[in-house]
């Protein structure tokens, strides 16, 4: 399955609670909780580039499946991790205490972040 494309955020669940659990200060949470970000994914075989634009705040992550890389978390921190492909349509990684699963079904991209007992889901649609 090819993930390449641009995706616009349509909805999110528990994002504010996730940011709070990640330790972000309230003023940053207030700025980020209502963003309608766009994700551009460029896939070339096993190599991926994610470009996330949240209200003109750009975050870029590049990785090759199965290889250790440095990734920027949704909270802005940098950590080392390995991204794996599961079931042909899920990109899965564990970054410190956070698990991230990005799943593509047709034109819908669903990213689920789990941090402790807080689960956040962000749903985007291919544009």
From TrEMBL:
<dbReference type="Pfam" id="PF14651">
    <property type="entry name" value="Lipocalin_7"/>
</dbReference>
<comment type="similarity">
    <text>Belongs to the calycin superfamily. Fatty-acid binding protein (FABP) family.</text>
</comment>
<dbReference type="GO" id="GO:0008289">
    <property type="term" value="F:lipid binding"/>
</dbReference>
<dbReference type="InterPro" id="IPR012674">
    <property type="entry name" value="Calycin"/>
</dbReference>
<keyword id="KW-0963">Cytoplasm</keyword>
<keyword id="KW-0813">Transport</keyword>
<keyword id="KW-0446">Lipid-binding</keyword>
<dbReference type="InterPro" id="IPR031259">
    <property type="entry name" value="ILBP"/>
</dbReference>
<protein>
    <submittedName>
        <fullName>Fatty acid-binding protein, liver-like</fullName>
    </submittedName>
</protein>
<dbReference type="GO" id="GO:0005737">
    <property type="term" value="C:cytoplasm"/>
</dbReference>
<feature type="domain" description="Cytosolic fatty-acid binding proteins">
    <location>
        <begin position="5"/>
        <end position="22"/>
    </location>
</feature>
<dbReference type="InterPro" id="IPR000463">
    <property type="entry name" value="Fatty_acid-bd"/>
</dbReference>
């Amino acid at each position: 399955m090819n993930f390449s494309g641009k995706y616009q955020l349509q909805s999110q669940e528990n994002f504010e609670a996730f940011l709070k659990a990640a330790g972000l200060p309230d003023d940053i949470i207030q700025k980020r909780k209502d963003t309608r970000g766009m994700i551009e994914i460029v896939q070339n075989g096993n190599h991926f580039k994610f470009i996330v634009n949240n209200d003109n705040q750009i975050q870029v992550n590049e990785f090759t499946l199965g290889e250790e890389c440095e990734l920027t978390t949704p909270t802005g921190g940098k950590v080392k991790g390995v991204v794996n492909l599961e079931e042909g349509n899920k990109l899965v990684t564990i970054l410190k205490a956070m698990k991230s699963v990005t799943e593509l079904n047709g034109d819908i991209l669903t990213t689920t972040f789990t941090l402790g007992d807080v689960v956040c889901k962000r749903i985007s649609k291919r544009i």
